Amino acid sequence: MSSSYSVRRSVVLALLVAVTVVVARVFLIPVPMTHGNVNLCDAGIIIAALMYGKRGGLIVGGLSGFLLDLISGYAQYMVFSLIVHGLEGLIVGWLGYNKGRKAQILALIAGIVVMVLGYFITDAILYKPVAGLAGIPTNSIQGVVGAVIGYPLALKLKQTLKV
């Protein structure tokens, strides 16, 4: 029985990666000053983390960020996105999985902070520290929008799928 559950979980996580990449790619807004973009990747990461915990958040976060950059022409960000979005999913899942509303909100905030700081460091490494600073507002908006969309969807999906 646990084997089929494991297969089901793997399939759902793979589907979450695919849906996250497609939705994020469709709603991709380039940000010239940072050489990056604003997208809905964070919503999928939050859904996975709150439904499947730190491992699910790490997997969906890392793979979604990596694949999105690969197909969007941002190859310079691929490895950084694997790490940054993977850590974001790990933190949200670790702090918010199967916890109360207050802990989940704090987990979302912590995940957004990790993502914003991660891309500040990424842009500072790839370009200049000023590029990292310029990305803080747009990355913050991306994180908040992802949380506003992802959090209620995660709660509803968890209830519907009985995860």
From TrEMBL:
Does the record carry Zinc as a key word?
no
| Coiled-coil portions | none
Positions of transmembrane segments: 12-31, 74-96, 103-121, 133-154
Say which domain of life the source belongs to.
Bacteria
Q: Which Gene3D superfamilies match?
A: 1.10.1760.20
Provide a GO CC annotation, any one: membrane
Keywords from UniProt, A to Z, are: Membrane, Transmembrane, Transmembrane helix
Keyword Membrane assigned to the entry: answer is yes
Q: What is this protein called?
A: ECF transporter S component
